[in-house]
Amino acid sequence: MENANAALEPQHTQLTLLQSASSYYYYDPYEKRTVEVPLNNLDAFISLLKCVMGTGILAMPLAIRYSGVVAGVLLSLLLMMLLTYCIHLLISGMTECCRRIQVPQVSMPQAVQIAYQSGPRCVHCFANVAGFLTSCVLVIGQFGLCCVYIVFVAKNFKEIGDYYCRDFNERYYVVGVCVLQLPFFLIRKLKYLVPLNLISNCFLYLGFLCIMYYLVRGLPNPQQRELIKPPADWIMFFGIAAFSLTAVGSMLVVEANMAHPQSYLGIFGVLNLAVFFILFSNILFGIMGYWRYGEQVEASITLNVPQNEM
To answer: What pLDDT is attached to residue 8?
Structure first.
């Protein structure tokens, strides 16, 4: 009997080491996760489009101007593949953090803190600071994006108001936009925003079609446009394209509110399908804008279209 126990002891030790290497064998956070009002896959797809598609696409023609048509397409593909891969790694890492401490869900700052606490002993003391700094980066980034959108919407309302009514100070339009957005801020469940996101996406693409109407009129000879610009100009392309194609915080929020988060990642997951649709829209809009206006393209393509038409 003692010999049998002695023979089983190495196997038990080996199994214990195998289990400790990955907590997947005894805890699945997806099975334990509960969301009060979850999103289905279609809801998540609609929400992702709304989160990522925005004012950045209006600057894509300028990005293509700095890179050239062929270089712009290739660099956009490369950038989006890199960003999507990083999102996959981030969500996989957050899921592993959930497994290690056996909780159904963690936020990004909590995941960073857990990662530091699970790392080498010399970095344990930085865990709280790393989590706090991550929260600061997310808050500052989201606050800055919200400010950009409010100012952008206010400027567009001001252009319409100045043309059809009278000239008011831009600050009044900013206050007006903030007041109009207050009811939407009171909606705390992402599921309840899905119908509004769908309506917004429809109006968004309707606006793109209106702009595309001006882009396809009077297209010059394609040979007049450069295919590849000097690499020294590509840094401007990366800055504009990164702003247009990314929304890391929103991508994480959508995954956290899904009924089946397993469907978010993967080759044909919700994230990859949304990314493909977003990338196609940005590249098409960027190429058409640069083809139409060339080196005269403005920071926002709306500044190139006729200002004397409704």
So the answer is: 34
